[in-house]
Amino acid sequence: MDSKKIAADKAISFIENNMTVGLGTGTTAYWDIEGIGQKVKEGLKIKAIATSKRSEDQARSLGIHIISFAEIAQIDLTIDGADEADKNLNLIKGGGGALLREKIVASNSRQLIIIADESKLVKKLGKFPLPVEVAIFGWEKTLEKLSALGCTPKLRIDKSAAYITDNGNYIIDCSFNEIQDAAGLHDAINSITGVMDNGLFINLATKLIIGNEAGETKIFYK
Ligand code: A5P
Questions:
Q1: Vertex 62: Cα angle to 220 and 95 (nearest 5)
Q2: Which residue, by CA, sits nearest to atom 7 of ligand 1?
Q3: How far, in Å, CA of 200 to CA of 202, rounded?
Q4: Torsion angle, alpha carbons of 100, 101, 104, 106, to 10
Q5: Alpha-carbon distance 207 to 111, whole Å?
Q6: CA of 222 to the centre of ligand 1 (A)
Q7: 3-class SS at 36?
Q8: Which residues contact 43 (CB under 8 A, 6 or more apart)?
Q9: For residue 21, how far is its CA from the centre of ligand 1 (angstroms)?
Q10: Backbone Cα Rg of the chain
Q11: How high is the pLDDT of residue 1?
Q12: CA of 81 to the centre of ligand 1 (A)
């Protein structure tokens, strides 16, 4: 069984009729959107906000009603993946390049359920290079300032050109190996002019659902 789908199916069981739901991005969130599409066909009534153009396209193709922030007060529940998660539910996200929209959606959600396979659960965050979304203008100087925080920064490349986010920015992937003070690092990175946001999600997730190949799930609560 696909562990990512197992986790996604469990998360979908927390969706109720008439909720506004945030849709994540990535190969795990893919299963969440597929599953929600199926429930909508069976009669579930929800409105959704997507964290990327590709998730929005997938959702629309399944008949999920997509709305904008202008139409709602708050999102009831967002389901999204992660690149790393610890047991305190702090995360690294942005491997798929959608971190800024993901964080905007997450920070406007009453609940954020993170779904993942077992490989994403770590003792300490940082092995996965931390994605940082930066303005294209002056990115070389922003990279130097990120480097001064003790990482090896690398401009993300996609098919031999710089990767451009849905928001028209670059991503710099920062290898720290091990992050000691995730909250402090989050704030230090975001205080650099030219940085839009970084992939550390601190105190945002309310549940972490880990799926495994045997079809079981383990849930960690905040
Ligand atoms: C997208 O920008 C990310 O934050 C994803 O949620 C994260 O990279 C996990 O992706 P996968 O589910 O594809 O591993």
A1: 45
A2: 82
A3: 6
A4: -110
A5: 8
A6: 21
A7: helix
A8: none
A9: 18
A10: 17
A11: 85
A12: 5
Beta strand pairing call for 152-155 and 170-175: antiparallel
110 CB neighbour count, 10 Å cutoff: 12
Phi, psi (rounded to 5 degrees) for 88 = -85, 5
b/e string for 15-34 if b means 16 or more Cβ within 10 A?
Answer: beeebbbbbbbbebbbbbbb
Task: Please report the atom of ligand 1 found closest to the CA of residue 28.
Answer: 12
Please report which helix (H) or strand (E) contains residue 85, including its range.
Answer: strand 84-85
Q: How far apart are alpha carbons 202 and 97 in whole angstroms?
A: 18
CB 165 within 8 A of CB 125: no
Mutate which of 3, 25, 27 for ligand 1 pocket (most atoms within 8 A of beta carbon): 25
Catalytically active residues are: 102
DSSP state for residue 9 in the 8-state scheme: H
**What's at 116, amino acid-wise?**
A
pTM passes above 0.90: yes
Q: 89 — alpha (psi -120 to 50), left (phi > 0) or beta? A: left
Ligand 1 neighbours (beta carbon < 6 A): 24-29, 80-83, 93-99, 102
Divide the 222 residues of the chain into consecutive groups of 10 and give the mean pLDDT of each group. 97 98 98 98 98 98 98 97 97 98 98 98 98 98 98 98 98 98 98 98 98 97 90
